[in-house]
Amino acid sequence: MSLQRLARELDETARQTAGMVEGVTQALELLADKSVSADEARREAARIIINALQGQDRIEQRCQNMALAVRQFALLPPDAPQSVYDEIWSSLVLDELRIPALSGSASFGVHGEAELF
Question: How many Å separate Cα 64 from the centre of its chain?
Answer without folding.
Answer: 11
